[in-house]
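Box 3.1 A note on notation
Throughout this textbook, protein chains are presented in two layers. The first layer is the amino acid sequence; the second is a token string describing backbone geometry. Keep the layers aligned when reading.
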Amino acid sequence: MVNRPVDSVFQPWEVGEARPGPTQVQAAGAIATSRPSWRWLWIFLLCSCSTSSLALGAFFWLIHLPATPDCRNSITITSDRAELYCAQVAAESGDLKDILSALEAVGSWSSSHPLYHEAQPLVEKWSWIVLKAAQQQFQNNHLETARSLIGHIPATSPVYASASTALDRWSRQWTQAQGILAKAQQALQRQDWTTASAQVLALSALEDDQWQAQQVQTLAQQISREQQAHRLLAQAVAMAATGDRQQLARAMGRASQIHASTFIHSRAQPYLDQWSDLLLKLGLQQWYAGNLPQVISLARPVMANPNRAKTAQQLIWLSQARQIAQQSLNSWRTSPDQLVKLYQAMMLANRISPDSPYYGQAQSSLITWRRYLGDLARLQTAEIPGRLQQVNTLKLAIAQAQQVPLGHPARRRAQTLIAHWQLTIERLEDRPILVRAHQLAMGATIPNLRAAIATAQQISLNRALRPEAQSWIYIWRSQLQSIEDRPLWQRSQQLARQGNLSQAIVQATAIAPGRALYGEARAAIATWKGQLRRQQLARQWAVAAGVTRPSAPPPAAPHPQTPLTLARPAPSPAPLGLQSKPPLPVPQPTLPIRLRRPAPPPVAPAQAEDPQTTPVSPGVSTAPEPELSQPLR
């Protein structure tokens, strides 16, 4: 099938013409095909040239764009476009000053300006921000500031009408509120709480709900503060009327709670000044009396009074400085810490200004403390050789401490140190004597002990080691007496063990009173004399009962007919020389024979003064004892 050109298909045959032959048809088709090809080629070339021209133009336009202006440098802002750009950049920070500057830059453009329509949306946006800021200033009672902000909104801005209407409304409400508030303030000054409360209702009737709510709340709070201040002042005056210092301090604390913005505060100030002066006067009296904590407690309430706060603070500094200085004087030994505390006291006292009523007391204390500081340093210098514990260095320390004059605050401390060092010197000087006495006493013989006692007695009276020497002298004398009396005491004990109690008593009696063994000897003598009395009473009882055999053992129990009074045990012997002669046993009425009182046996002269005890019961042992045929010597 032969394809034919499109044009030939739709080309009509002319009526009456013969149908072309095959050769003619092929030639006509070739001519028709060549014509559209050239046309499409020219169209393609024209389009390509146009596109290339546009691309080249855009390229040259891009590479020749104007530079972005530097908004920080006003020289680069050479066109309105640049000014608008910089205003927009500045407003994007959100700062109110930048927004006002942007409005000032583009707000004055008229409608004929080329950039007017482009800038109007921005002007409207910035104007709403300024209006909102002005409203906030009005809410904060700054009408003039709000009016100034409204003045920055240009007349060409769509927000200008709303801003002018809002400013008129604010001015009208402000004028009404000022009249109401002035009437309320006058009522508060007269303490007319009813009229002041009525103004709160008048404020609540204003148009702007948010602003009038703030004004109502502010006035209500002011009325509450005024009423509370009135109550506080009345209570403070009642407390201060008693005249007691504690109540006066409480009145100061109560009056200091009055708010400074109230009208009552101006009425309370004279009371505060009067009470403050009275408390400060009492505090100064306590300072002279030395009661420093009381001074501080009286001055602290005055700190709440602004008119007397500085004076009260200076009185507290003066008292605290004296307290610190007294702390440095408590110890009789000097130390670096005392110097530091004294410096602190002087620094506090130096803070009192010349116009203070306590400047004279501060300067007087400073003069005393400076003198004391020099003597304290001198004493501390004296303590350095005093710590070496040597006679020569201690004498040097004493000479240094004696330079502190009489009447000086450090004089007592210096005298204490001097006394302490003198005692130390005496101990150092007398210690070798006491050591030598101890070395002599270690021999434990009579000559050594006597030599030790004589050596220790070389330490004279009023010396530091005299009490210690006296103690050792007493110990060594006791040892010496024990050694001297030991043979006599041992002989008496030997005689007592042999049964010769009378001779043992004679030997023990030879130990003189005040000797080391005297107490032990007297106890033994009392025991031996008791034994002699019991033996004698046993013999007397045996003779009175008709016992013919003294060697027979005593009965195990008293006789049934014997009274119970004869069976009580003999009491312990009384002290020597204070006993009476024992009574003889009473004859028993039931015995078959009448017993006579036997003649007492011969008694040695040493037994003439022996005490007498109660009779021994029949149950007491009657063992034989040595005869007392010869008087005791």
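The chain has a mean pLDDT of 74. The radius of gyration is 66 Å.
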